[in-house]
Amino acid sequence: MPADGAEPVVVPADLWQRPEMLTALTNRDIGHLFRLVRQYAGVSQTRIGVAVGLSQGKVSEIMNGAVQVTSFEVFERIAEGLRLPDAARMTLGLAPRVITGTPVLSAPIPARDGTPASGLLSVEQVELVVSPRQSADLLDVDVLTLAWIVGRLDAHVDRRTMLLLAAGLTAEAAASVADPWERLTRALAGPQVLDEDTVERLEARTIGFHRLEYELPASALYQGLTSHLNELSTLLQGAPERFRRRLAATAGEAATLASWLAWDLKRPAQSASFNRVSALAAKESGHPIIQACTHAYRSYMLEGRAALEAVRRAQQFLPAQGDDATRAWLLCLEAEHLATLGDRQAAERLRQAEEAFDRSRPHRERAWTRFLDGGRMAAFQLSVQVRLGDERQVITAGQQALSSLDDDSDHKRIAVIYADVAQAQFQIGDIPTGVTYARRALDSAQRTESTWGLQHLGTVEKTLTSQQDPAARELLGDLIATRRALGTSPA
User: Fold this and answer.
1) If DSSP codes are grouped into helix, strand and coil, which group holds residue 473?
2) In whole angstroms, what is the distance from residue 419 CA to residue 451 CA?
């Protein structure tokens, strides 16, 4: 290795504030970032590689555009190796290194329009608290603004950053973002002009709501999402043809999520109404796949063969080619329901799902596919194998699922994985370990009020009814109490 390889890379502090560097960070263009570091810090590719844990050849490929960096783990190594300040880390979509104290913003977060938030956020000290009271605290969040920011950042923001944004963005703070006279002037100017920027804002906000759904409880999102749909409804009236189909598509994507949240909040009539809206929007927009999402969500509301039929109904809205992330998700759901019914075809559906996932680009396809990643696929594998009762496969799938969990894992997924690991432990007779994992699952499900997690714990609840172990009996009582409090039936 050349002698300069071991020397640390010292990047001039002002480089992180240069417009071209902010552009590279916002776009997650690591090749551009490396070229700027080489230009202004005067370091070789070897020194950059040593600092960030990559070979010189790989650094060269990235700088030349032959390889694109997409892994959160690699982004984190780059941030640590080049000692990115917290403002730069946030622009790259990573959490700040210092998470003590109170939120400090170097510039206000735009409430609706204007400069992308990724170019303004600079959280130097943030206290991240996720507790069972989270949903009550989040009722004060300006969810419309939060969804827009998350949707604009999309793949550039991880779970912790989303929660940091939520922690620092209250409705009161958002109301003071713009100058009050400017806000009043816009209000007096009359109805909002429908233009490209407005449509893009609404599309980004819909994506943001879908991303926030797997982080936040339904109660924290529902009112904001219905306000978002009301705005879409107003703009659709008399919208020019060049915007109408796009607005209808984003309305359909939002309505499918609203239907799911309404069901989660025990509002079946509203859930059914939003289902009808999504069907109309799918037809109007020319995107029948919206109906695939609607029926997939509906399968979570059903049990047994009825749930399986809902998934198969969803699959009828898939195109012959493309939309592989949605295809993979539906195949995973079909595998889960087949396994619940004891049908060994579930294993074949999992294989097909893996093939579709390998072809997919979840962050480029649909608003609802952003959740699908290797960790979610591992969770589906575990869920199916537990239901099939294949002990050897359960052990392998359980290890893969647990290894997929990290600080960036959403609590709804954590609840499901821990619930399935707990059930697997009960099946092999390891009651203490099963209770431990079930406790973790319950804690995660309570934090997010996750119906999905509690459904998986329903199987654990049934298993515990025959146990006499004191810890198991205590856990059973807590599961029953939580289910009653949230109004969820056991699976």
Assistant:
1) helix
2) 13
Which secondary structure element, helix H or strand E, spans residue 297, and what is its range?
Answer: helix 289-300
Rounded to whole angstroms, the Cα distance separating 43 from 58 reads 16
Contact 46, 138 (CB under 8 A): no
Q: Which residue blocks in 99-240 are alpha helix, DSSP H?
A: 134-138, 143-153, 159-168, 171-175, 180-188, 196-213, 218-236
Crossing angle for the helix pair 30-41 and 56-63, to the nearest 10 degrees:
110
Tens digit of each residue's pLDDT, the chain (491 residues): 334 445 678 899 889 988 899 989 988 899 999 999 998 888 888 889 888 888 888 899 999 988 888 877 788 889 888 989 888 887 887 766 643 333 333 333 233 333 333 332 222 222 323 333 344 444 445 677 778 777 877 666 666 666 666 655 544 444 443 444 444 444 444 445 678 888 888 899 999 999 888 778 888 888 889 888 888 888 888 788 889 999 999 999 999 999 999 988 888 888 998 899 899 999 999 999 999 999 999 998 888 999 999 999 999 999 999 999 999 999 999 999 999 999 999 999 999 999 999 999 998 899 999 888 888 888 888 889 888 887 778 888 888 778 877 655 666 778 888 888 888 888 778 888 888 888 888 888 777 777 767 777 888 888 888 888 888 899 888 888 887 776 654 44
8 Å CB contact between 139 and 219: yes
Would you call 460 helix, strand, or coil by DSSP? Answer: helix
The backbone torsions φ and ψ at residue 141, rounded to the nearest 5 degrees and listed phi first, read -80, 140
Q: Residue 219's closest CA among 132, 301, 296?
A: 132
Say what the alpha-carbon torsion angle 338, 268, 438, 95 is, to the nearest 10 degrees: 100
From residue 176, give the alpha-carbon distance in Å to each of 97, 170, 172, 179, 188: 28, 10, 7, 7, 18
Q: What distance in Å separates the CA atoms of residue 445 and residue 439, rounded to the nearest whole number?
A: 10
DSSP helix/strand/coil, 225: helix
Q: How many CB atoms lie within 10 A of CB 186?
A: 13
**Side chain identity, residue 346:** A
- Return the amino acid letter for 173: A
Dihedral of alpha carbons 402, 408, 411, 416, sign: negative
What is the spatial distance between Cα 99 and Cα 128, in angstroms, rounded to a whole number? Answer: 7
